[in-house]
Amino acid sequence: MNSTSDTDCPLFPDKPGQCDVLIAIRRTTGALSLVGCIFMIAVIWLFKKYAAFSQRLILYLSIGALLNSISYLMGGLRPDGPMCDFQAWWMTFFDWTVLLWVCCITFNLYLNVIKMITKESLEWVYHVLCLGLPLLLSCLPFIGNHYGPAGAWCWIEDNWHWRVGIWYGPLFLAIFCLFVVYIYITYILNRKASSWQGTYDPDTERHKELMKEDIKPLRAYPCIYLAVSIFPLINRIQNAVSPEYPVFPLMVLSALSSPIQGAVNAIVFGLDRETFSRLTPSQIKAAFLKRISRGPGIQEYQHQEDGGTPY
């Protein structure tokens, strides 16, 4: 375990132990998120939930969050060099990946609720966006060597123009847009739920069930991202206003909430009624044996009296 005792603690030069506390908190919550993401990916794979487009979006978000949690497990402040640059690049790339997958999920919810359409054909566009844009933005700080020791860990060095341009500016704008769109989606859903009350209509009921299948699994994840972003945003605003006076309790709250998204996602995912009903030892064992079976499995044939070919 790297300790700030080997390097300076720029945030609290008189109390380097506080940097160690922040790093330990980030590692702990990062480990919880790592376990949570592995759980989600395993369940989606085990029960073949990825057959549904909404579950594939959750899968992609989980993979991004898993890789992002690794950046929190890499440790704390390192001397300036290739390893510090790599940690900073990794964190930037997968922070962006997670944010963009949340944006894609929100956009998909918008299409389902407002436009009442499902655009699975956009899946490849989502992949290009969520991999291409993070790759571009995470490589830009290499121009001029802006990655390096930053606070209690490695990231963009003390240059607010680069920090705001690469991350905080787009992040603040994205969170504001996510918040507005999410409130609008919730409002429209509630209004539609009210309009559905009354006389039974088969077409309306069928449409309502299809909407529930597409929307219900995804609604929580943008909300979770917004919730865990509150303290980091407050902390960064405070840093920008008074960079020479960091607030340790606020940084603790930020270190607790920043990496925890994967763990909270896993709790919400596991408590979903359909998923929770499958998480019994017998069903897990049966699904696992079916997944690892190499045979063709049991096939159903219909007997024909004339000796024709079964199907």
TrEMBL record:
Annotated GO biological process: adenylate cyclase-activating G protein-coupled receptor signaling pathway; cell surface receptor signaling pathway
A single MF term (Gene Ontology): G protein-coupled receptor activity
Signal sequence range: none
TM stretches of this protein: 30-47, 59-77, 89-112, 124-144, 164-185, 218-235, 247-271
Subcellular location, principal: membrane
Family annotation (InterPro entries): GCR1-cAMP_receptor, GPCR_2-like_7TM, GPCR_GCR1_put
Listed Pfam families: Dicty_CAR (PF05462)
UniProt key word Membrane: yes
The entry's keywords: G-protein coupled receptor, Membrane, Receptor, Transducer, Transmembrane, Transmembrane helix
Compartments, record wording: Membrane
G-protein coupled receptors family 2 profile domain ranges (all copies): 22-273
Topology relative to the membrane: Multi-pass membrane protein
Keyword Membrane: yes
GO cellular component terms, semicolon-separated: plasma membrane
PANTHER family: CYCLIC AMP RECEPTOR-LIKE PROTEIN A (PTHR23112:SF43), G PROTEIN-COUPLED RECEPTOR 157-RELATED (PTHR23112)
Name listed for the protein in its UniProt record: Cyclic AMP receptor-like protein A
Natural source organism: Mizuhopecten yessoensis (Japanese scallop)
